[in-house]
Amino acid sequence: MPIWKRAMEIAEEIHTITEKLPRKEDYGFTSQIRRAALSIPSNIAEAYGRHHIADKINFYYMSRGSLTETQNHLEYGKRVNYIEARRAEMIDKGLCGLYNEINKIILSLKRKGRTVKDGV
């Protein structure tokens, strides 16, 4: 899935930018932002593997939540000078695009779910 691929690329980029963070952050900030970023493609993959529309939608919601958590961590990293502002903004731009794509999938699945319920 192209959306999964883009989400995985963002997770990889987050991993790369956090490699040089202070060692004291290994079990704090570094771990949190990496887990949040990796959770985005993980939940997309989980949604893809689900059969029921409601299950799929729930996993896309979780992916979207992880995405906004990642954005929050990026903003914090930028504010405390862990992450270069320009790089954080580039990643955030990708996350915003991904957010919109996830929303489109959710809306599409909701429409599909209503169609199935209505027997159309």
Which keywords apply here?
de novo design (two linked rop proteins), 120 residues, 4 helices, mainly alpha, single chain, elongated
Strand and helix layout:
Elements: H1 2-18, H2 29-49, H3 53-79, H4 85-118
Helix pairs in contact: 1-2, 1-4, 2-3, 3-4
> Approximately how much beta-strand content do the residues carry?
under 5%
Average of per-residue pLDDT values: 94
Question: How much helicity do the residues have?
Answer: over 70%
CATH class placement: Mainly Alpha
Choose one word for the global shape.
elongated
Low-confidence stretches: none
What's the CATH superfamily, by name?
Answer: 23S rRNA-intervening sequence
Radius of gyration: 16 Å
CATH topology: de novo design (two linked rop proteins)
How many strand segments?
Answer: 0
Could you give the order of the helices and strands? HHHH
Assigned CATH architecture: Up-down Bundle
Distance between the termini: 27 Å
Q: How is the main sheet built?
A: none
User: What is the number of helical segments per DSSP (H or I, 4+ residues)?
Assistant: 4
Domain count: the total is 1
Q: Pairing-aware structural class of the strands and helices?
A: mainly alpha
Provide a short characterization of the protein structure:
This protein is mainly α and 120 residues long. It has helices at residues 2-18, 29-49, 53-79, 85-118. It has one domain: de novo design (two linked rop proteins), CATH 1.20.1440.
